[in-house]
């Protein structure tokens, strides 16, 4: 549904593989475990939005978001942006 949901799911899968480790940072661990997940009618996982977390009295999971941004790989960029075709003429003549 959203890039944020995709990154949280990738992080979850990374932890499920159990071939990983993170520093013993209590704040990071608390933020990674604080959002709840629901499922859309399409079956896709949705991570709790920050506004709903705020209503529950939780802070924005900034550390967790920063950590999960490491899973934003270049796969999307490769699909969205293609290398421009080589031109047979110079740019100033256009």
Rg, alpha carbons: 19 Å
Q: Major sheet: size, sense and barrel closure?
A: 2 strands, antiparallel
Order of strands across the main sheet: 1-2
- The quaternary structure here is single chain
Q: Count of helices?
A: 5
User: Spans of 5+ residues with little confidence (pLDDT < 50)?
Assistant: none
End-to-end distance, in Å? 41 Å
Shape: elongated
Overall structural class, as computed from helix and strand content, comes to mainly alpha
Helix content: 40-55%
Beta content comes to 5-15%
Task: Please count the beta strands (DSSP E, at least 2 residues each).
Answer: 2
What is the ordering of alpha helices and beta strands? Answer: HHEEHHH
Overall pLDDT confidence = 82
Give the domain tally: 1
Compact description:
The chain is mainly α. The chain is built from 5 helices and 2 strands. The protein has a two-stranded antiparallel ribbon with strand order 1-2.
Structure commentary:
- By secondary structure, the protein is mainly α.
- The protein has a two-stranded antiparallel ribbon with strand order 1-2.
- The chain has helices spanning 3-16, 26-33, 50-55, 62-68, 75-80; strands at 37-39, 45-47.
- It is built from five helices and two strands, in the order ααββααα.
- It is elongated.
- Helix 2 (26-33) packs across helix 4.
Keywords:
94 residues; mainly alpha; two-stranded antiparallel ribbon; 5 helices; elongated
């Amino acid at each position: 549904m959203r890039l944020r949901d995709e990154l949280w799911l990738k992080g979850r899968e990374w932890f499920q593989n159990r071939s990983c480790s993170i520093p013993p940072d209590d704040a990071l661990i608390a933020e990674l475990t604080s959002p709840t997940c629901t499922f859309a009618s399409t079956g896709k996982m949705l991570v709790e939005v920050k506004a709903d977390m705020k209503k529950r009295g939780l802070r924005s999971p900034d550390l967790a978001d920063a950590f999960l941004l490491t899973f934003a790989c270049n796969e999307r960029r490769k699909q969205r942006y293609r290398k421009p075709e080589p031109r047979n003429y110079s740019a100033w003549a256009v």
